[in-house]
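Before a computer can learn anything about folding, someone has to put a protein's shape into writing. The three-dimensional part falls to structure tokens, numbers that each stand for a local backbone shape. The protein below has been through that process, and both of its lines are reproduced in full.
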Amino acid sequence: MTVMPTLQPRSLPEPAAVLTLLKPVTWFPPMWAFACGAVSAGVSPAGQWHLIALGVLLAGPIVCGMSQAANDWCDRHVDAINEPDRPIPSGRIPGRWGLWIAMAMSVLALVVGWQLGPWGFGATVVGVVAAWAYSAEPVRLKRSGWWGPGLVGLSYETLPWFTGAAVLSLGAPSWPVIVVALLYGIGAHGIMTLNDFKALEGDRKMGVNSLPVTLGPERAARVACWVMIVPQLAVICLLFWWDRPWYGLFIVISVILQLYAMQVLLRDPKAKAPWYNGTGVTLYVSGMMLTAVAIRSLEGGA
């Protein structure tokens, strides 16, 4: 009789699993927001391209990647229900390697952030603290369907936008930059709420009170839509107030298209949330860059 060899548990993580842990698909929003901040600063990038490249790298692969690793480690029990094939519950990242990767990347983030001067370093500290506050006990703001998405929205959009503008201008950004970055960060709360639909069952079992859990999919989707639209309406008003009507008109068209996409979303929120993330969210982030260009012209940038 042939004896089959016993598979030994892994002692080291699979390289491909580490990349999956860091979720490259999530890096785009903070990288894009940092670029929006750099554009909106109204400062020539000549001689500062290395800072832009370093900031984009920090915002995306490093800080956002670190936050994903921290979240997966702290969520390993929820993922065992929702997504058992994820790197940690599947064993492809064994033992405490998920925690060690998240901690090592936290240190790396601070080291890289130090290279961006006091404003860049301060923003990096805030980003690292926010990532752990979102996922880790005893704070674990992820348990709240209001505080959790709000923190992520501000961390993914407002903070990198502010940082990109501050790094290039070597100081505090102007108040139009700050206001617009804050508005788009608030609107991103709705985007984060839609992301919670994919974890509905596991969140309900593990006591994570996301809005889809506490309000139900239909009401949560309606709240998310309002939260995304209202800040953009405020941005439109500001653009007309700042005498940038053509930019405001483009955002109006974007919002109209988003409203159409939202009608599709609301027919079946749980099934259509991924579709909306590929359509409505694209329109949302396109409006961010248009607004950044408008502010650049307001600041006198070329």
Observations:
- The chain has a mean pLDDT of 90.
- The two ends are 79 Å apart (CA to CA).
- Residues 15-299 form one domain.
